[in-house]
Amino acid sequence: MDILLIAGLWLHGSTWDDVAAALRSHGHRPVPLTLPGQGDGSAATLEDQVAAVLAAVDAAPGKPAVVGHSAAATLAWLAADARPDKIAKVVLVGGFPAADGKPYADFFELRDGVMPFPGWEPFEGPDSADLDEEARRAFAAAAIPVPGGVATGIVRLSDERRFDVPVVVVCPEFTPTQAKEWISAGDVPELAQVKHLEFVDLYSGHWPMHTQPAELARLLAAAADPV
């Protein structure tokens, strides 16, 4: 099966390299996506990134699994909304989809039209506990500022058939129990309506593609394999 891999904020598609290599050994075809605005210097919008994801879905020979990491959980979910009949499964890694009408990822201050990586202070604790100083320096040096048109883009969802698409939530810096509690409390309204929802645990920080690529690949392969 094709597995489309969408990284979160500040990341290039190459962040999936180790995961992609492991997925091939599991018999899948990984397709890491580098989206408009992720290193090409363009003033991309959220719509541009959604269009790139949908182009990858449409180019897949069968029904792909779509993996969204962190904020890109929303991109994966937007793909399910636009192509509910063409996606086998959505896998969310360390993130949850935003609801209709909400901004995509206006989490930090924009500077000169982009949202730069804010440094490690906002991510102290479970998010970054498994990253050593060298890994943190490398991450920060490679971080790609997010175009303002992406970060502040408004999420638009319209097809309720998205709730028929099976979803797997991979829980790295939080537990499945916590995720279920947040959904039950109404914090993630989109997932509360999903008809086939699973949770898997992954003991890591927020960026398991860097710290646990083999285990993340194993979980993604298991999620993509037919039952």
From TrEMBL:
Pfam families: Abhydrolase_6. Keywords: Hydrolase. This is Alpha/beta hydrolase. Gene3D superfamilies: alpha/beta hydrolase (3.40.50.1820). It comes from Amycolatopsis vastitatis. It comes from the Bacteria. The lineage of its organism: Bacteria, Bacillati, Actinomycetota, Actinomycetes, Pseudonocardiales. PANTHER family: EPOXIDE HYDROLASE. One of its GO terms (molecular function) is hydrolase activity. Residues 3-218 form the AB hydrolase-1 domain.
